[in-house]
């Protein structure tokens, strides 16, 4: 039996996410934007809630296509607010529309969103060595710096805790516990 981080043992969906995605270095701009949207919606909620609604989010937000999202009008926002399959929070929905515009601007300015995001870890994976999940902090100096810069650049719902979870999810920080089989498989 494979040893995993205990947080993922609640369901097959969680285990699959842990085994195939979480902590894998991600460099695709559109996927990086998707994770930013999902992490923003997760604020104040459990990740399992978001993961269980992920496909509904994909459908509702045009497969996280920022070029489409920036054109959402009040009618589309009303539709999203009435979509029982996603998180119906006006602030988070409006922030997603706003963040899509900011994302497109940053992507153009830096040549890619990947370059912008990975600059916070000096374009490499930060490999921690936590023995237990209780050792893993909710934030770090890197997530503090990232949050401050994202806010300065116009992003919303990007506090330091959200940024740290985002860095973990996209594999910029390897926070698999050292006894987890994925610890040596991801990052450098």
TrEMBL record:
Task: Recall the GO molecular function terms of this protein's record.
Answer: DNA-3-methyladenine glycosylase activity; metal ion binding
Q: Which UniProt keywords apply?
A: Metal-binding, Zinc
- Please give the InterPro entries that the UniProt record associates with this protein: Adenine_glyco, DNA-3mA_glycosylase, DNA_glycosylase
Annotated positions binding Zn(2+): 5, 18, 176, 180
Q: Does the keyword Aminoacyl-tRNA synthetase apply?
A: no
The Gene Ontology biological process annotation of the record reads: base-excision repair
Q: Where is the signal peptide?
A: none
Q: What is this protein called?
A: DNA-3-methyladenine glycosylase 1
Q: What is the lineage of its organism?
A: Bacteria, Pseudomonadati, Bacteroidota, Bacteroidia, Marinilabiliales
């Amino acid at each position: 039996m494979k040893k995993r981080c205990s947080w993922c043992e609640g369901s097959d969906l969680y285990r699959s996410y842990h085994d195939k995605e979480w902590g894998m270095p991600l460099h695709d701009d559109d996927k990086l934007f998707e994770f930013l949207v999902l992490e923003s919606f997760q604020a104040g909620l459990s990740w399992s809630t978001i993961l269980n609604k992920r496909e509904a989010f994909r459908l509702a937000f045009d497969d996280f296509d920022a070029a489409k999202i920036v054109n959402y009008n009040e009618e589309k926002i009303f539709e999203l607010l009435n979509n029982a399959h996603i998180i119906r929070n006006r602030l988070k929905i409006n922030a997603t529309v706003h963040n899509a515009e900011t994302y497109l601007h940053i992507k153009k300015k830096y040549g890619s969103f990947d370059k912008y995001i990975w600059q916070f870890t000096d374009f490499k994976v930060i490999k921690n060595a936590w023995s237990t999940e209780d050792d893993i902090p909710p934030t770090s100096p890197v997530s503090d710096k990232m949050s401050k810069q994202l806010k300065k650049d116009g992003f919303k719902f990007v506090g330091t805790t959200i940024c740290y979870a985002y860095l973990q999810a996209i594999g910029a920080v390897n926070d698999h516990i050292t006894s987890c089989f994925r610890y040596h498989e991801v990052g450098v």
